[in-house]
Specification:
Elements (H helix, E strand, L loop, with lengths): L1 E8 L5 H7 L5 H9 L3 E7 L4 E8 L2 H9 L2 H10 L25
Length: about 100
């Protein structure tokens, strides 16, 4: 299983709304993530807007590609894009994995 961690930056003036939107992620979005190989997926948000994402998957590139092909993802990304700073494209395209340097089972 591949472990993936990434960073994004939420606009400070949109933090409260970002948190609210993630309290009830659309059921069809949750189902699509699971179906396309996103497991143990978590988002962590710092008060200054730093967003840390973590997920486990068999193949991150394949999971991203499969998710990008879903209609629900296109809708979700369009709604979420205005929340982020310094993005060239959709939020899911801005997720650049960090290099894992240590892991303890």
């Amino acid at each position: 299983m591949q472990r993936v961690c990434f960073l994004l930056k939420v606009r400070p003036e949109r933090l409260a709304e970002y948190r609210e939107r993630h309290r009830e992620v659309w059921p069809e979005m949750r189902e699509a993530l699971s179906r396309t190989g996103w497991h143990n997926y978590s988002l962590f948000l710092r008060d200054d807007g730093l967003l840390v994402g973590y997920l486990e998957t068999e193949d991150f590139e394949a999971a991203q590609k499969a998710m990008a092909e879903t209609e629900v993802n296109a809708r979700w990304q369009a709604e979420m894009a205005p929340f982020f700073e310094n993005l060239d494209g959709r939020p899911d395209e801005g997720m650049k994995p960090l290099t894992e340097v240590f892991h303890l089972d």
